[in-house]
Design goal:
CATH class of the largest domain: Alpha Beta
Largest sheet: 5 strands, parallel
Number of helices: 11
Radius of gyration: 19 Å
CATH topology of the largest domain: Rossmann fold
Number of domains: 2
Distance between the termini: 39 Å
Helix content: 25-40%
Length: 286
Amino acid sequence: MTSSTSLVPIKTSKDLRLLRQNWRNPVGLVPTMGALHEGHLQLIRHAAHCAEEVAVSIFVNPTQFAAKEDLESYPRSLASDIERAQLAGATQIFAPNVTDLYPNSFSTYVVPSGPLVERWEGRSRPHFFRGVCTVVCKLFQITQPTFAIFGQKDFQQLQVVRQMVSDLDFQIEIQAFPTVREEDGLAMSSRNSYLDSEERKVAPLLYQTLQQAAAIIQNKPKQNLEVLSQTLKSQLNAVPQIKIDYLSFVDAESLQPVSQFNGNVCLMVAAFVGNTRLIDNLLIQT
């Protein structure tokens, strides 16, 4: 049951640590960058079913943006985010300022390496996982959650965070939540608001292509996936508003490319629709 009193956001890590001493366990953490949509709200509702306290972090993390990316234009709507999060079941809101998490003296980053980050987002956005792992590590240290929930839309991020938790011995359960989609299949994303009307019409083709691939594999599981991925890329690149960054079949655990279906494959895609970069994926399993 949500409170009739509006939540007051916790603004500093010091204040959160003091308040954390009185929180009831289990504590669920839902890390977000704000601009909450139904996908975020479903994560919060799920956490509320599993936890006594649901902490939602709202922080546009500057260290995961490159110089020419959309840090300044990224949508921000703190007041409405707090209201929507509370209605979905949040009991705590952590909305720190940049200087709280990254003071002028800050100099220590969590830099993942190895096969999980060598390709895909790690290659296209080489700064990205350093920023993600650093801020997630800090959020874990500050909030001390029992579990944290991440959306499966950011599939590589999910796997990288799982690896970090294992490597650094965090006693935190990482839960994955299925991708939440619009009625036409487009994966919900705060960046969807950047799309103009024509781009919005073609954006669902990304998911439709993933579904097409799954159906093809179901009918002919022994075909060469490298050949199929090239066909799918050409198909999408033929749409004037779409430019593929990557599209590949990967092992769902190692994220390494596969040429044959092994029973646990993820088809991952990143594409520019107009000037907006969108990602999506689909698990194909037996």
